[in-house]
Amino acid sequence: MSHQDQRIALIARLADELDRRGWRDPGDAARTLALALERGQGPRGAAAEAPSRFLAVNGISRSDVEAMLTGVAAPDPSAGPRGTSGTAGPRVAGDDAPRSRVAPVAERETPARPEPRLVARLILAIVAFAGGSVLIWLGPSATDWKWLLDHPNRLALQALCQASVALVAAGIATRRWQLVAASGGPLLALLGLLGR
After folding, report:
1. Higher pLDDT residue, 161 or 102?
2. What pLDDT digit, counting tens, does each position of 145-162 carry?
3. CA-to-CA distance for 185 and 168, rounded, in angstroms?
4. Surface-to-core class of residue 46, CB atoms within 10 Å of its CB (0-12 exposed, 13-18 middle, 19+ buried)
5. Residue 25 pairs with which residues in a beta bridge?
6. How far apart are CA 68 and CA 46, in angstroms?
7. Given 38, 55, 137, 172, which is the most exposed site by the fewest CB atoms within 10 A?
């Protein structure tokens, strides 16, 4: 198998393992990890190169990635011991590869930083939910909106508006725009109550 074929096989193996664990790869994490292993780095060293965005999106640490890499890739048996000839390179686990030597004392891990856009979406969702809630429940009393205050279905109308605001906030936070679209459901029910 050529060097390029080995690299492709390792990337595919890593991608399959990410899928099996339910981890999303928003960038090119599988390729980054494969290249790190290919350069002769062990699981710990390769995990240190895992993109921060990949860690944040999946809510995992570098130690989780290291544990995954330990089971996925093993050193090439053709690689000689340190100080002797032999080309180091990873090979896909499952072959008769020897175990890696025990890793040195644990290195201090760099904590994954949340993706800035994710933080911005969460802040926007919280502001939208809190602002909408204040307007819905305190606005009518503050503005002395007698029509709503005297309406027989006042609580139902406000609860439907709150449900719409919650769906919009959830859609913003998770980028699942079908939740934003679903906010039209409570609004349609609200229109039905207006006629009563």
Report:
1. 161
2. 888 788 888 888 888 888
3. 12
4. buried
5. none
6. 11
7. 137
Site of tokens 């994710």: 118
Whether the predicted pLDDT of 190 surpasses 80: no
Tallying the residues shown for the chain, one arrives at: 196
Spatial contact of 69 and 128, defined as CB atoms under 8 Å apart: no
- pLDDT value of position 112: 56
Query: Do residues 178 and 162 lie in contact, with contact meaning Cβ atoms separated by under 8 Å?
Result: no
- Count CA atoms within 13 Å of residue 25 on its CB side: 18
DSSP-assigned beta bridge partners for residue 75: 90
Q: Given CA atoms 140, 143, 144, 148 in this order, what sign does their dihedral have?
A: negative
Vertex 131: Cα angle to 153 and 121 (nearest 5) = 125
pLDDT for residue 108: 44
Q: What are the φ and ψ backbone dihedral angles of 74, each rounded to 5 degrees?
A: -135, 155
Measured CA to CA, the distance from residue 52 to residue 56 in angstroms comes to 6
- Amino acid identity of residue 55, one-letter, is L
Separation CA 17–CA 25 (nearest Å): 11
Q: Return the H-helix or E-strand segment holding 153.
A: none
For 25-36, what is each residue's pLDDT tens digit?
877 888 888 888
* Averaged pLDDT for residues 54-66: 87
- Bridge partners, 92 (sequence order): 73
